Here is the input.
Amino acid sequence: MRFITTKALAILLCSGVSQVALAQEAASAPQPAVDNGDIIVTAQRRSQSMLSVPLAISALGGETLQNKGISNSAALATAVPNLQVSSPYGSTQPNFSLRGISVANEYNSNQASPVGVYIDDVYIAARTSHGMGLFDLDRVEVLRGPQGTLFGRNTTGGAINFITRAPKLSGTNGYAEVGYGNFNTFKAQAAIETTMVEDELGIRVAGNYEKGDGMLHNVAPGGRDSNSVDTAQGRVYLRMKPGNGPLDIKIRAYAGRDRGAQAAIHGLTGPNTPGQGFFDINENDVGENRTDAWGVAANVALELSPTVTLTSITSYDGGKQNLQQAADGSPLNVLNINWRSNFRQFSEEARLNYEGERLKLVGGGFYGWDRTITDNRFNIGSALAPGVDGGFFQHYRQTRRSYAAFLQGDYDLTDKLVLTLGARYTWDKAKYGDAYAYLFAGPFGSAGTPIASTVPCAGVAGTCAYDPAARYAIDGSNKALTGRAALSYTFDGGTLVYASYSRGYRSGAFNGGGYTSSVGITYIDPERVNAYEVGVKGRFLDNKLTLSAAGFYYDYSNQQVQDTRPGPVSFLVNAPKSQVYGGEVEASLRPFDGLVINLSGGYLHATYKDLTLQDTDLSGNDLPFAPRWTGTAGFDWTIFDTGSDSLTFSPTVNYFSRQYFSPFNGTDAVGTAQNNAELQQKGYAKVNATLAWAHGPFQLRGWINNAFNRKTYSYGLDLRGAGFPYNFLVPAMPRTFGVTGRFSF
Here is the structure.
């Protein structure tokens, strides 16, 4: 689902339009790029030049996102080295993989991403809400490596911070754009900002809408095409700075919804089926991805003195998903799943920033609460006997609470040498309760008749009599000390070199996939990462070349992976040990005015040192969604610029080497019907391009993605091991193209 988080519709808090749904903002207002082309980031919870931060960061400004055709979070992998984005649901509930650390083959909505996702510094717990449409953003910051000190919660892999445009409290500005593309896709986006009181009171309102036909053709007679788009989001951002004084209040509200058709599935039928091409499906019952998200947040910063600022960020967010997924990829009723969950979360962070001459400190406390209520239904053909359909219904309520205290300081040992030390202590508590599941009889689309309780039930599915009052509940808790230590040195020419150690942590988890027996519903251990990194950043060749490079080594323990067995029975287990090492480089070269060449690349070696699933030793296998090589090459060429008119061509090629979708890689468990060699995508390259003509405040942009219509899979899941006669594969998007017109003021 392509949608959701950056979206808002909402309230005019001071104009009196009632109905508030607010959302939030970063500790400081988004900063523009400085004159030399550098980007100001807040990766250390204070504004700094990206080239002066001793972290591996990719920062993409709003204009860059537009030029690269990145319109949703799932497309970020085309611009960030060692980042992969995948999902069994299309753009809904994306799985972010940074340097090989991801949720692996886990697909349940109750799991926390090990790559923390933030909107303006607010942690978003529900992975469904990560599939956001990107619009009216100041920038996106992608922080690679554990961020366990200042971001903290569930950031073993890193953090992605989406930073929206805030009112600047000066003048009026905005834009409006409309576009049309193949598959009858219409897009519209607009924003307007006005200042009611100069330097004191301003508001910005933005919206985004997209609707298009299915992108993968359904050859089933009368069948609905898959991967259609129907999404709308809106945002309202109010900023108050009374008397242009030390108090800065930012309040933001967002809301959005998505109603697109489900992602295409190749299962029982696929591109090897006569009459069916790669970008075709043969499915009698294509479902709909119905998702909603909304939120409200307030960021209040008070400058207590020229060196001390107190910031409070309070947020309340919610959403829901109702995904009707035909999961067999065939005109037969084999497997149809209704994934349904409701989400709520609250968070409060209070922090104090001190900016001294030699010492800079950031410290504070955090509290977060989130709740997931799930009601899933699994319809399985011939579940009870040949020709006798049935399935399983599952319900549970999961609640998590997280408390943390943190402190990080930068101390100038000399004018050029800086020591960074930080620590965070986290208490996590979780409850899994009101849980029940049962086996039912009945045809597809019916409510079904319960015939046996499966949760709670310690035995084989179908062996426990149905008890409508039976409930299952367990608790879990963890404590963790995470932190960071780094030394950085800045040479006379501005080049920064650094070495760092970071410890990351992802809290323990409940098995959201346990519905055929309560035996597999346990609370498993938290993940931990000890990360070592060295890096260099700077400008060279008379400032024509900007370069960032980093090398890293991870000692990774207890990755949480799904073990699916015939029954079907799912267990969430820990992979005891993994080893991850590699590096990445990002470079931007401006050989002459009018041409900017952008290059990036990543190498990744991510393997299990110790893992056994289904009595099969998988030690030495690659982690899922961890290609050895990734690379991007492109340029922005201003063909002409007369002052009033300009024409810019921006092509990009993205390369990804082979990646596996399962910890099994190509290994089949002994005694099973698995064919895990299907669960991979071999290396490929894709080309995107834009051509933009600007005339004063007007811009006309033509764009194309996957220009050569490469046929690739973005996700795969073992279903043969669960007793089905096929695997589950999700094809990536075909070629898309269109034109967009924009007016800015």
